[in-house]
């Protein structure tokens, strides 16, 4: 690395919304500290974000920030998304990776970066031994607990604890994973380890990337010490240089000048048009009376599951605000699969939108509970807002997150693997009333800890300062 020059950070997120969003928040935090940032995004994702969010206005105040785009190598007609992870990975390895190298060497991405902040879910993208040698800081956008669960899978296979031997084996406790004794059942491991065949490519890929990311110059995690200290100390034994700097959305809020950002600068997180009308609907509801239902940007469900949720919500007798993404039911973009009859029936006590301003919704006085798929960004947003959760995890890290929500942090209930109307109605009433007192103590305490971690002197605040300092030192 050339000494005495101004630091320049290249950031490259994995092309999925749940990964791009936290990377953008980190980019904003680093820009606020005055660092020069080049943010490399996949063309198609960038175009969708430009169309539906305030991305450009959010970054226009940083003269040393710029966006660059690159191809993922897939044809424009490709609609496989994350369901065809292997296609995406193959294409990125053969097309995007050599192109990235060429762009780095030709100066198209600006001066040779001081370091690359690379999403650890595709740490193969940069060879740390190739010239020019640029330190890689791997950013894993998942929880420390799921990262640790992924890292432990090879040993679990070796010891014969995996594969899971069918449905009847799902409640068996996993043994010998430090920091997780008496917590994890087979059911709670990252979903890819459920497949009987332990050579399944998606499992091998996820585990390999997790292990690879712990070998990077540094590991960045969107979590905070008070939430995951025991697990973080286990990870530090393999990867000593960790920056735990989350929750990033709260971190960003606390560092932005001004009390409250104007609506046009509120961070918006989506590929879809945000429907702000639900805020006015919430304004008209009593305090803590509404369950917010949202399953993130990827989860899809069948018609039957959708109907069970709908009946469960209606039968619970509670008010609800439900995000039904355009491609969520049945999985096809543009067809939300919501039968008109169901939508009609919802109007009585519920509100449905295609995409909500989630952070603002969760912070709204009317919200009393959060039915979530336990994606890590949503989980952190629920924690900071101090809203108890009902977890219906679907895949990957979500299965581990939901177990920690219910059994370790005790801030919600885990509805894993079931979604019949009776269970939905019961869990909704448990969170809104029957078990509310028991949950609210830990919920309020955890929210306080999250917020103080990002305030001056807090653990995440100090880790971010240390990271910025370490990046600057690379140039001295
Ligand atoms: C994916 C994975 O599913 C998740 O497990 C992993 O931790 C990150 O990548 P996703 O499924 O989209 O992400 O879930 P999540 O991490 O919760 O992110 C969803 C984001 O979309 C959140 O930041 C949330 O605020 C935002 N969102 C969701 C909206 O802004 N509006 C909505 O209506 C719904």
Automatic annotation (TrEMBL):
Gene3D superfamilies: Glycogen Phosphorylase B
EC number: 2.4.1.-
Keyword terms of this UniProt record: Glycosyltransferase, Transferase
CDD domains: GT1_Gtf-like (cd03784)
Pathway the protein takes part in: Secondary metabolite biosynthesis; terpenoid biosynthesis
InterPro entries, alphabetized: UDP_glucos_trans, UDP_glycos_trans_CS
Pfam family, one: UDPGT
Similarity section: Belongs to the UDP-glycosyltransferase family.
Name of the molecule in the record: Glycosyltransferase
């Amino acid at each position: 690395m050339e000494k005495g020059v101004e630091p320049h950070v290249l950031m490259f997120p994995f092309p999925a919304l749940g990964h791009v969003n936290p990377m953008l928040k980190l980019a904003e935090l680093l820009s606020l500290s005055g660092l020069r940032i080049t943010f490399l995004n996949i063309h198609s994702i960038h175009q969708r974000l430009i169309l539906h969010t305030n991305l450009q206005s959010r970054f226009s105040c940083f003269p040393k920030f710029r966006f660059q785009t690159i191809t993922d190598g897939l044809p424009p007609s490709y609609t496989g998304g994350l369901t065809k992870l292997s296609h995406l990975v193959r294409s990125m390895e053969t097309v995007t990776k050599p192109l990235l190298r060429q762009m780095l060497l030709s100066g198209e991405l600006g001066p040779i970066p001081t370091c690359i902040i690379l999403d650890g879910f595709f740490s193969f993208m940069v060879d740390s031994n190739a010239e020019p040698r640029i330190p890689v800081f791997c950013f894993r956008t998942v929880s420390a607990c799921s990262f640790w669960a992924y890292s432990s899978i090879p040993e679990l296979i070796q010891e014969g604890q995996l594969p899971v031997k069918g449905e009847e084996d799902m409640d068996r406790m996993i043994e010998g994973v430090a920091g997780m004794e008496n917590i994890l059942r087979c059911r709670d491991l990252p979903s890819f380890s459920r497949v009987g065949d332990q050579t399944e490519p998606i499992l091998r890929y996820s585990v390999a990337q997790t292990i690879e990311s712990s070998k990077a110059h540094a590991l960045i995690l969107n979590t905070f010490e008070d939430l995951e200290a025991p697990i973080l100390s286990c990870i530090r034994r393999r990867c000593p240089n960790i920056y735990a700097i989350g929750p990033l959305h709260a971190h960003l809020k606390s560092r932005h000048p001004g009390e409250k950002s104007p609506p046009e600068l509120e961070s918006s997180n989506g590929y879809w048009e945000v429907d702000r009308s639900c805020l006015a609907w919430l304004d008209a509801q009593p305090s803590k009376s509404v369950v917010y239902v949202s399953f993130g940007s990827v989860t899809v469900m069948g018609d039957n599951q959708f109907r069970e949720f709908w009946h469960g919500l209606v039968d619970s007798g509670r008010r609800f605000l439900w995000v039904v993404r355009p491609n969520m039911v049945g999985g096809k973009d543009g067809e939300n699969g919501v039968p008109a009859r169901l939508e009609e029936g919802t109007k009585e006590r519920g509100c449905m939108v295609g995409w909500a301003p989630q952070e603002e919704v969760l912070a709204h006085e009317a919200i009393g509970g959060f039915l979530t798929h336990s994606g890590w960004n949503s989980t952190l947003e629920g924690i900071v807002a101090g809203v108890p959760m009902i977890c219906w995890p679907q895949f990957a890290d979500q299965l581990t997150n939901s177990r920690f929500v219910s059994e370790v942090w005790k801030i919600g209930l885990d509805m894993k693997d079931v979604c019949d109307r009776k269970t939905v109605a019961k869990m909704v009433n448990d969170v809104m009333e029957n078990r509310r007192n028991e949950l609210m103590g830990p919920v309020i305490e955890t929210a306080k800890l999250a917020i103080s971690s990002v305030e001056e002197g807090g653990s995440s605040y100090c880790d971010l300062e240390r990271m910025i300092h370490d990046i600057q030192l690379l140039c001295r």
